[in-house]
Amino acid sequence: MISIQTGDFDSAVEYAQLRSSGAGTGAIATFTGLVRDSGDMKGVTGLYLEHYPGMTEEVIGGLVDDASKRWDVRKARVIHRVGRLALQDQIVFVGVCSAHRSDAFAACQFIMDALKTSAPFWKKEITESGEHWVEQKESDVARSKTWE
Amino acid sequence: MTTENITIRFFARLREELGTEELTISAQPGLTTGDILAELAGRGGAWAQLKGDQPLMIAVNQAMAKPSTPVQGGDEVAFFPPVTGG
Lengths: 148, 86
Description:
The complex is a heterodimer of chains A (148) and B (86). By secondary structure, chain A is of the alpha+beta class. Chain A has helices at 11-18, 55-70, 101-118, 138-145, and strands at residues 2-5, 27-34, 44-51, 75-81, 83-86, 90-98, 121-127, 130-133.
């Protein structure tokens, strides 16, 4: 299931729901991304996240489908927040249930890496001296390409 | 919106720099997203960046597209900077 939302999420609740994926599940891998105080700029005090409603959900759904073709994925959950976020706020959650840990780790990392370069989200860093849109990182593009 | 029109949307930095969130143009036979970019870039000023000086992503009906992708009446075309989510 995919959620794009302004509100926060509770990782414990998400984990509990992932655990209900059935007796065949032997591993759950989760990733949570947080707002940090530096990125393109130092002294970041918060972020603003914009997305393309509709397309974002379609793209992430496609990534989960791709992951399910490559690895054993029993259940997957992706949550991405939009709007204004403060330091240490949770931005993104990816959780994957699988029979085995290697598949759970790989699918979780694939979804996260691919999301960063293909899902239409844009981050704007906010500092005390101004705001600016974050540029796409070559390192993120390179990481995403390693899955091709 | 009539079916003869194409809706064009802009996001993030591009939306702010162009000062435009959405506009419509008339559909023409054989039109591609690249043709639309060239026409908009011809407006000059901030629109000139659509010439290709900066990296740009294109979507048609919410699926990733290329400058060669054809568009027709009723389509939604979006132009936006490389994405930075997660």
